[in-house]
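Marked as duplicate of an earlier ticket. Keeping the data here for the record.
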Amino acid sequence: MSSTDRYAAAGVDLSAAADAKRRIAALVAQTRTKFALGKVGGFGGMVRVPPHYKKPVLVISTDGVGTKVLVAARAGIHTTVGEDIVNHCVNDILVHGATPLAFQDYIASGRLVPEVVAALVEGITRGCQAHDMTLAGGETAELPDLYAEGHYDLAGTIVGVVEEDEALHGDKVGAGDVLIGYASSGLHTNGYTLARHIVFDDLKLDVGDRFPESTASVAEVLLAVHRSYAAAITPVLPLIHALAHITGGGIAGNLVRVLPEKCEAVVDAGSWSWPPVFRVLKTAGSVSLAEMRRVFNLGIGMIAVVGRDDVESVQRAAQRAQVKTWIIGEIVPGDTGVKFTER
């Protein structure tokens, strides 16, 4: 038995890896922008910093889609989570005012299935193209002793750029500023460990069943793509004092990250309605309001902190991008933190 055969017997199929790389290369080529350098398939990805920046600052973020991949695997739908990871990372650097330049992915599985990897990268490619961003490379790993059959993990790293004196740090936030909430498209990429237990164990539903209070299937509701807010926010970035991407930790856990000292965010909990998916999860899972607020975005995927005079302009930009917004609160003097009130 050759060394290659021994490797295959141990669970790693090098021929499948080669097939996956061929499929990926064709997709990666579709994302190359004028700033891309080097060959597809190099040891590292290269991208130029656009020349018009006077003092460019690179903004780098890494994230994953968590156990949402288990829903994708259960449903056999793999193209949406690839788009999820790109949009999630785009939002994370948008918070600092950055424009995306390049993306790299990491896909690890128990057994490398070229069709699945290609579907994942198809979604990643779609997300990169939507943001005029180069998919500069990535990594696929076959780890049979680490991942169960049919399971995989997906993560990504994004590189963006912002002019140093235009970067958002939260230092512009002050008392009297208004909180604008941007509608989420669903759970986005957080809270799936709890959501899966409620849907599959408590409600005894499967991916093909109709989701309660909806005409869509469980798969369609749980795999709704994490919304990117770039189109809604980028045109009005100079008007924005701070941005908070509402991910794990909910509104309170993320909004507090952009508040300066002696500024309290007061969120009017009655200023928007929860989408049905969150109402169903709360009721079916007997989840407390406090826990719902810690785990889920509850229909608000991004919050902008803006001056009162700029609220209308910021909301109009979101409307042009077909993203619904609400005025959900304000900044007041006080201890740094987030407080919920009811009308």
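See parent ticket for discussion. The longest strand covers residues 152-163.
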